[in-house]
């Protein structure tokens, strides 16, 4: 009898990173796929499902503007419990470190359903940063039956926490599967302004920001980006704004009236990856962008004090620069003006994956349930 695998996800990055897994589950003869979205994000989630052609079987619809983390968690527990009861899956797959993930993994564990954690073992080492993600991923690790670690670094983090090695598979990060698949399709820009920037050949500074622990410095980020737009007038600055009103209210006012700054709505994944490929410098606090941009050979400056993704920092393509206004301006300016420094960072590296993470993940899930064999671990060498 085929085993029934329920994938639960709620935000944009989870949707991007589980899409290759869902597609691989759908293609599997031994495993059936059930998809549940919590709706933690709304437009930003639906946008990704549409691009990957995924129609969720269940939607918990927990979205609300500016809701507290506790309100969100309790709605996920409540909504998911009923679905777990009615569907009775053989395993529940979660991805990453959002509050959807923490709630869904505990909910499955309480129902004694094995939890499969995609992107397991990332650790910054600081429980307060990223907040609340570092706690969310540790909570999920405690109740996980199968840890799908993207890299050997993340596997080693789990081993240090005494996780049984037999329960860990190193798969690569599924975001690289999603990225390769999307870039291959060569999806055109919808937005004429983006098309124009790409055609102009002007250098591009691509900026994204949303991290909760950075909310109190978001105005600083806005001011730094505005200064950069003035100091680098030959650059186009593109900022696809996160939907969070707290982020928008803080970041966007400083950018008003600047001719070389384009603020957009969240870009569809195909457009965003195309913009990354057309960019010169990426300035971000995003987790996923830290993994994707190095694969496209783009230098990434990360507005955070630490990272759970050290691999591309070690490879020299990603640099942690914190959130001080002067430092942000200085680091971007240096990349824009010092060609030797730029060349030293602009190396295409793929420490996070080879595009086969979903296949390894699904094989490991099959192995967990006794219907398949595992594939060899991902090795970036
Ligand atoms: C969430 C995750 C974070 C992840 C990020 C990816 C938690 C606690 N945070 O942060 O780990 O890195 O998603 O983007 O799980 N909003 C909309 N429409 C949308 C999405 C969001 O209007 O489609 C607005 C709402 O007002 C919402 C707010 O943004 O209340 C914040 O959304 P939320 O999911 O709570 O947190 P994020 O900051 O997006
Ligand atoms: N992304 C996108 N459109 C945008 C901005 C980002 O599709 O306008 C993608 C990006 O390529 C990456 C993911 O969204 O895969 C990152 O999401 P986010 O930064 O919101 O979350 P994080 O990765 O920090 O959890």
UniProtKB/TrEMBL annotation:
<protein>
    <recommendedName>
        <fullName>UDP-N-acetylglucosamine 2-epimerase (non-hydrolyzing)</fullName>
        <ecNumber>5.1.3.14</ecNumber>
    </recommendedName>
</protein>
<feature type="domain" description="UDP-N-acetylglucosamine 2-epimerase">
    <location>
        <begin position="23"/>
        <end position="365"/>
    </location>
</feature>
<dbReference type="Pfam" id="PF02350">
    <property type="entry name" value="Epimerase_2"/>
</dbReference>
<comment type="similarity">
    <text>Belongs to the UDP-N-acetylglucosamine 2-epimerase family.</text>
</comment>
<keyword id="KW-0413">Isomerase</keyword>
<dbReference type="InterPro" id="IPR029767">
    <property type="entry name" value="WecB-like"/>
</dbReference>
<dbReference type="InterPro" id="IPR003331">
    <property type="entry name" value="UDP_GlcNAc_Epimerase_2_dom"/>
</dbReference>
